[in-house]
Amino acid sequence: MENAALRLKELAERLIGAELPVRIRGWDGSEAGPPGAPTLVVRDRRALRHLLWKPGELGLARAWVAGDLDVDGDLYETLDRMAGFIWERGEDARTLRQAVRDPEFRAAARKLLALSAPFLPPAPPPEERRRRGRLHRHTKHSDRRAISHHYDVGNDFYELVLGPSMVYSCAYWAAPDATLEDAQRDKLELVSRKLGLEPGMRLLDVGCGWGSMAIHAAREHGVNVVGVTLSQEQAAYARKRIAEEGLTDRIEIRVQDYRDVRDGPYDAISSIGMAEHVGSERYLEYAHDLHALLKPGGRLLNHQIARRPQTDESAYSVDEFIDAYVFPDGELAPVGTTVSLLERAGFEVRDTEAIREHYALTLRGWVANLEAAWPEAQRLTSPGRARVWRLYMAASALAFERNRIGVNQVLAVKTPEDGASGLPLRTREWRA
């Protein structure tokens, strides 16, 4: 008997320099590892080739998306147990990439592979987006391609994951046992109150998605809305919803880059889960553009995921899995950087609310929706794409829970020269 699991366990423990915290089931049916622990299933030895040819997170991601790696047991518990040696290794520890390149490790892995498979580089899964280098990042053309990769995978798939609200950003939970729909409605209302929306005002919704914020603002607050997105599928879906709501006289949805909006001034701007796509090189330009589109006294609500500060903030870093499979060219910045750039563009930042625990609850809700309709999710997109979303959302939920990343709502004002911001004296009442 080959006993692939035992040999894989030995390789893994050499790799991480510690006892493996999960069980392993090999392609031959053998198992090894701590009893009762969740099981990492290696369905095909090709998973090991993915890791050897592309050491690190991307190799593991390719094996997962291809279906060569799976989990038998609770996915959250498995990721939580593995986080310490995949995502949270200390600066002085050996990285996964360095360990995989160790000659002794590679020799042992080749012996295992040689039992029945040639040592050839496996092709990446078709769901992977080919990277083009930093020179091509955040042009209007590249941003359209990146947005299409992420959002144009089928509105029916997103309906299944997001639920009827069709809101793809952090909800705002009044209580942990609230429904996802209630929490998303409360988030849209919170944004509306922070912006001080009143009948007759003009709102620009940057990155309007499937139209949920635009519909809420027009229906509940009587404002006129322009929503812009780079996704053709989102725009078509949003327009259909707006027509069904009888709001076509109040809402216009455009397939347009925010950099091409020229019909200001607006009374308010909402940017909810869009700024992560802007990029560090373009962020000050983004802030200047939105500032120019607001009338004096107008408010911006910038809702954005943030990472923790790095030791060397000049270094460029990217999450390989996220970049290749989820948000191409997406970048996260510390909230302090975001606030500083908004201020440099002329905004007066008046409030920052951190809501990272809310995003963990939101993501767990989306994962539950996905898992409850797993066969249908695979049919609507592809088995690989469904696996991408399940891993991405579950790992992200843990990242928010562990404070590896956060999410913040930053309220900023284009304060006029006389200093009259229009905000109330008491904070977080939002209306003058």
TrEMBL record:
GO molecular-function terms, A-Z: methyltransferase activity
Biological process annotations from GO: methylation
Domain of life: Bacteria
Residue intervals of the Polyketide synthase-like methyltransferase domain: 157-398
InterPro entries: CFA/CMAS, CMAS, MeTfrase_dom, SAM-dependent_MTases_sf
Chain positions covered by the region annotation Disordered: 121-141
SMART domains assigned to the protein according to its UniProt record, in alphabetical order: PKS_MT (SM00828)
Coiled coil ranges: none
UniProt feature, compositional bias: Basic residues: 131-141
Gene3D superfamilies with a match to the protein in the record: Vaccinia Virus protein VP39
Keywords of this entry: Lipid metabolism, Methyltransferase, S-adenosyl-L-methionine, Transferase
Family the entry assigns: Belongs to the CFA/CMAS family.
Name under which the protein is recorded: Methyltransferase domain-containing protein
Organism: Streptomyces anatolicus
